[in-house]
Design goal:
Layout lengths: L20 E2 L11 E6 L4 E5 L5 E2 L3 E2 L1 H11 L1 H10 L1 H14 L9 E5 L5 H8 L3 E5 L3 H9 L5 E2 L3 H4 L6 E7 L8 H11 E12 L4 H6 L12 E2 L2 H10 L2 E9 L9 H14 L4 E8 L6
Parallel strand pairs: 6-7, 6-9, 7-8, 9-10
Antiparallel strand pairs: 1-5, 2-3, 3-4, 4-11, 10-13, 12-13
């Protein structure tokens, strides 16, 4: 018997709560006019009328967001990551393969939002020089103590790496959680060498599932402050000095949303035609004279 249709299943998130928030300009274009786009249970997303970026606005303040992972729910997040570590790693490796990461010469790689360090451990085994950033204290400690990795319990901006420190920056399911995605991309540009790469993986707000389920979309969760499309994320990267070289999406249907044969077909077509549920963008740092 096939599993029941489960289109309303959402990814893990900290509990919805009332926290200090404020109305902010659009992080992508600076616009200040918004229309309600997704009305979820206890929270909502609005769309910027100028550029179309989906965002939580009024937005929870940065110190409140940090507390979710550092103090309030860090142990729960670690347990969730450990329980799903194998499937998460497999998906990350498939995505990186889709955008030709493994063809790059091995050098210095920084994984921002590295969780328990599973991917970093794999890359270290392959010959990369690895560093991680993880805001969740228990996860960062696990990566250091259990895997022996160099992982800082910090944000990227607070780590203060020197200019041109890395050949590659990875950010998987991170940018949608940040109060200031623009600052993250700017800092990534600063710490990458000329010609270095930034790989960003995030839910695709213009994908089939997002359009089908609306406020019930599994990525429309409390912890996500922004929901990017290929267009809005590409614009952000280009405006901060990156050339977007390749974009791949995947995930036509989530597991349990229909018969296995239908899922296989939907997944194949989602990747081929770019309407998948999740996307990865491979972008390359341009020197100031090239953008």
């Amino acid at each position: 018997m096939n599993k029941p249709f489960q289109g309303t299943y959402k990814t893990w998130s900290t509990p919805v709560s009332k926290q200090k928030s404020k109305l902010i300009p659009c992080n992508l274009c600076g616009g200040q006019r918004f229309v309600k786009a997704l009305d979820c249970e206890g929270f909502s997303f609005v769309r910027c009328t100028q550029c179309g970026l989906l965002q939580s606005n009024p937005q929870v303040e940065k110190k409140e967001v940090s507390a979710r992972y550092r103090e309030l729910h860090g142990a729960e997040y670690l347990a969730y990551e450990l329980e799903n570590e194998g499937p998460f790693l497999a998906l990350q490796e498939l995505a990186l393969g889709d955008v030709d990461f493994y063809s790059l010469p091995k050098g210095r790689v920084l994984d921002v939002g590295c969780a328990t360090g599973a991917l970093l451990q794999r890359l270290r085994e392959q010959g990369w020089t690895v560093t991680g950033i993880e805001l969740c204290g228990p996860s960062a400690k696990y990566a250091r103590d259990v895997r022996g990795l160099n992982v800082l319990n910090s944000t990227l901006e607070d780590a203060h790496f020197p200019d041109l420190s890395f050949d590659v920056v990875l950010a998987s399911h991170l940018i949608e959680h940040l109060n200031d995605p623009r600052s993250f991309v700017q800092e990534s540009h600063r710490i990458l060498r000329d010609g270095g790469y930034l790989f960003v993986t995030t839910p695709n707000s213009d994908g089939f599932q997002a359009r089908l389920f609306g406020s019930r979309w599994r990525s429309a969760i409390f912890d996500h402050l922004y929901l990017f499309s290929k267009k809005t994320l590409g614009r952000l990267l280009r405006e901060q000095g990156f050339a977007v070289e390749k974009t791949v999406t995947w995930g036509g249907l989530a597991s349990g949303m229909g018969p296995k044969g239908l899922k296989v077909l939907a997944d194949r077509w989602a990747k081929r035609f770019g309407f998948g549920d999740v996307m990865i963008l491979r972008s390359r740092r341009q020197s100031p004279t090239n953008h």
